Give the backbone structure.
Amino acid sequence: MNYIPVSGSDKKEMLESIGVKDTEELLSLQIPEVLRAKKLNLPEALSEQELMSLFKSYAQKNKSDMICFAGAGIYDHFVPAVVDEIVGRSEFWTAYTPYQAEASQGTLQAVFEYQSIICELTGLDCSNASMYDGATAAAEAVILAVRTSKKNKVIISKALNPEYVSVIETYTKNLNTEIIKLDIDDKTGAVSKDTLNNIIDENVAALVVQSPNFFGNIEDMQTLAEIAKSKKALFISVVNLVSLGLLKTPGEYGADIAVGEGQPFGNRMYMGGSTFGFMAVKKALEWKMPGRIVGQTVDKDGKRGFVLTLQSREQHIRREKATSNICTNAALNSFAACVYAAYLGKSGIRELAEANISKARYAFDVITKIKGFEPLFKDGVFFNEFVLKTDKDIKKINEELLKENILGPVDLSGFSFNCGGKYNNCLMFAVTEKRTKSDIDKLAEILTKI
Amino acid sequence: MNVPNNLFYAKTHEWARKDGNKVYVGITDHAQHEITDIVHVELPEAGKVFDKEQPCAVVESVKSAFDIYCPVSGKIVEVNEELLSAPELINQDPYEKGYFFVLEAANEEDFKSLLNAEDYKKLIEE
Amino acid sequence: MNNNKTLNEIKSNRNEEKTVKCDVALNINIDDKYIRKTVPNIPDISEGTLLRHYTNLSRKNYALSTTMYPLGSCTMKHNPLVNEKIAKFDGFSEVHPYQSEETMQGSLEVMYELQESLSEISGMDYFTLQPAAGAHGEYTGLLIISKYFKSRNEKRTKIIVPDSAHGTNPASAALAGFEIISVKSDEHGIVSPENLKQVLSSDVAAMMMTVPNTLGVFEKNIKEITELMHDNGSLMYYDGANLNAVMGILRPADIGFDVMHINLHKTFSTPHGGGGPGSGPVGVKAFLKEFLPSPFVVKDGEKFKFHFNDKEKSVGQMKAFYGNFPVILKACAYIKSLGANGLKKASEQAVVNANYILSKLKDRIKIPAGNFCMHEFAMSLKGALGGGVRTLDAAKRLLDNGYYAPTIYFPLIVEEAMMIEPTETESKQTLDEFIGTLINIFEESKTNPDVVHNAPVNTSVKRLNEVEAARKPKLRW
C-alpha cells in the first residue's frame, strides 16, 4: 500500500518536463553510482486490512486497561470523550507548527489558551507552549537558572522523581554544573528546612523541589522558597497539575519557575510515551524561557489574533546562542490538556483534586488496617500516592493482583535511589479519581489474603 | 541618516560620547534602521568590565538578534533600564533616550581607533 | 454568533451537578499552609459549548487534510488514517511504564521492529527510540560523540556545521558543550573539501551534515568529505531531516556517517500535530553502541526486553521512560504498509515532484541547485518579483490562494529564499495548480503589487503585528 496519487501517464509527462527518461536517470545525474544502496531487506508491503490485524495482534500481547494502582510519574486518569473528539480533528493533528500565523489561528489560539490555563493553575505569569516531558522541562529549568544566575551549583531534592534526576544529570554533565542532592527526612518523607539550611549558600543557582514529591508527600514549599530566596537562588518547583486544584500554587509560595509532567491532564499512559512538559515562570524570566511561546496581538484592521512571539530567543534565529535547542512543543498532548482543563472548568478542577486525595486516603486507611502493611513515612502528608512498607512477598502480591486484572503498586526496591536497601519491601500506591470504592476494596481484600 | 558630529563611531555601528570621565554608548541611526523594529534588548550588569570589541549587549528584532560590541574598554557604571520596557526608544531616538549604558573608559587610547562622523558616513555609504 | 471568543470569555453555563464524582467520603482536611487560596479563572462550560468553541477554532487552521503544504525541509506528507486508528487501540494506550516486561511484549515488539527497520533503511547498527524530536536526537547524538572521545581520552571540543544547516544543529552542539565552527558553502551551495580543510583541526570532534542539504542539493563531495574527517580522527553526523529524499536510494551509514537521527514525523509520516509530539530516534555504528542512552529493546529468544547500557559508558537518560510511543507505533505501521519497494517509490516520487515544479519555474527564477534537485529546492525570488514585493509578501499571497506558504528566508545563504518541498503525496493536478498560482503571484507583483503587499485577506485574520506582540508581550488571558 502506498499513498502516491500519481498515475503512470502523469509521471511520464512530469519526467518529460524535467527532461529525463526515467527516475533512475534523474537520480544518477545527482548521486554517484558507488554511493547507491542495494534493495532494502524489509518485509513485503501490507494492505490496510493486514496492517490492522498485525497491530491488533501486537496490542493483544500487552496486558492493558487494568485496574491501575501504579503511578510514580505517569497516572491512570479518566479521559473524557470530548478530548478525543477535539484533538482528533484533522485540522489540528495534520497542521504544521504555526509559523504562518494567519493560516494557523486555530492552533495559535489553542496554545494561547493552554498557556493561560497553565498560568491559572500554577499562579505564575508566563508559560511556554510546552516541552517534551516533565523530566526534560525540569532539566531545561535547571539550565535556565544556571545561565541566568551565572552560578553553577544546583540543589535537587532526593525526593525528586528519579527519571527527572537522571535527565537533569544528562543535560548538565557537559555544562560544568554541580548537582547536590538534598536528603529527605525519614519521618515526613519530605525535605527538612534544617538540612537545606546546612548546605545552601549564595553560590547556588537553583533549588529544585517536587511537591507532591516522588513518594507522594506534600512539601512545605513556602518555607523552602523563602530559604532559596534568602540565598538568591531560584526556586524551581516540580508540580502535578491535578494537585493544583487544591494545593497552594507555585505563584502563591513564591516559586520562580514551575515545571512538571502534563500527562495526567487528558493524556493516556502509553507506556510513558504520550507526554508533555509544562513550564511557567515569573515575568522577569519571560525572555529567558526556552521553547515556543504564543502571544496575542492585532491584525492590520485591529482585529485580535495570535502569533509565535519572543522568537529571537530561539534556535532558528539565535543558533548556538539560543536559550535552548528545542524546536518542538508537544502540541497535540498539551492541547489535550487544554481541552481537558476546559472540560473540567474551575469547579471540576477542584473536584478532581478532592476525589484524588479522598480516594487515596480511603485506600491508605483500608490497607494500613491489614496486618503487614505500615506507612514508611509516619508523619507524611500525601496527595494521591503513598508508600507502605510490608513484610509480605512483593512479587507474590503483584502476581496475585495481576490475576485479578489489577496493576499493583510500584515496587521501590529497583530504583537507583535505593542504595543501602532503605526502600526494600516498599510499595507505592497511586489512587486517582478513576479508582472506585469497589476497586479499592477488592485490592484490600486480595492483599489481606496474601 | 543622522550621524552627529560630536560622537565616536565603531565599524560595528556603535557610537560613544564622552561626558567628562563617563562614556555614553549606543547604536547608530543607521544600525537601528537596518535592524528595523527593535523588540528586545539584553543589557550588561553595572559593575561588569568589558574589553574593547567584546560583545556586551544584544538587540533583537522579530526575526533576528545582533550582538553589540563595546566600542572602548571600561567598566559599566549605569545601564539604561528604560530600554527593557521600551526598546522602541532605540528606533525613535538612538543618540539620546536610546543609549544603552554608561561606562568609565579604561584606556583613552581606545578612542583613537574609532571613526569620526565623516569617516563613519563614508563607511555606511559604501 | 460570535465565534471569536477566547475560552475565558465564555460565561460559565453548567449547573451545580459535579463533573468528577467521588464514591468515598470526601476527606480533604489539610493544614491551611498547603492550601490554594486563589481560584483558577477557567469557566465551567457544558460539553456542547466546548465542542463548538474548539470546532470553530479548528476551522481557522490550514492543515494537510485541507490543503497542500509545500514546506521546504518539513516533509508535510499525507498522514495515513489507519496508523491513527491503530494508535488508539486500548492495548497500547492503557499501558503503564512500570508494568513488567512480560505484560508489555506487544509494545516492546513494536519498538524492536522499528529499531530493526530503521537500521535496515539507514545502515546503522543500533537505534535508540528515546529522543522526543529531531533536535533532541541531534543533542543525543552529539552527547554520544562527546562521550566516545572522552572514553578515548581525546580532547575534541569543536563541531563543524555548514552555513546552510538548520539552526538546531549549532544550538544542539552548544547544549552538548561544543564550540561551533561554521563552514561556508561553495557557489553550488554545497560543502567543498577545500573550504572544509581550512577549518579542520585536531580538536574537531565531528561534522554535522544534512544530505541532501537544505537547498535540496546532493553533497556530491560526500565521500571525500567523510574520508577527510575520518582521517582527521573525527566522526560524521547525519542530520536525517531530509531522509525522505533517499529511502532505498542510499544509506547514510554506507556513505561514511557514524551517527544520525531520523525525524519520524517527517520521513515516516507521523503527523506534526501543530508542532509536536515528534520523535527523533538516533542510530549509531556498532563501535558507539555502549554510549547509547538507556534503555533500548533487545530480542532474547522469543521474548523482548529492555537493555540498559553500563551507566558509566552511556550518555544517560534523554527523557523519562522509553520514547514517544504513539509516534513510534505510527512510524512502524507506515514502514510495514509500504515495504521496501514502497519506501523507495515514495522517495523517488518526492524527487520527481520537486523536479517537476523546478522544471516549470527554472526559466523565471534563480535556483542555486541548477537544473535538478533532490526532494526539495530553495529558490531566490529576488528577480521574480516586482513592485517592491518581498518573499514574505508572496508567501502571504499564497495563503490567499488556499495554500500553506513554503518556508521562507531559509536557508540563510540564499537571498529572499523560498524553499519548496512538495512530497510524494501530491498529485500532478495539485502541483500544476500550485505552479500556476506561484507564477500568477510573480505577475501580480508587477501589475498589482498592492494586492500582494496587503495579503492575506482571505484568512481569518489579516497580517498580524508581530512587533507589538514581542514588545509588549501578552502571553495569557
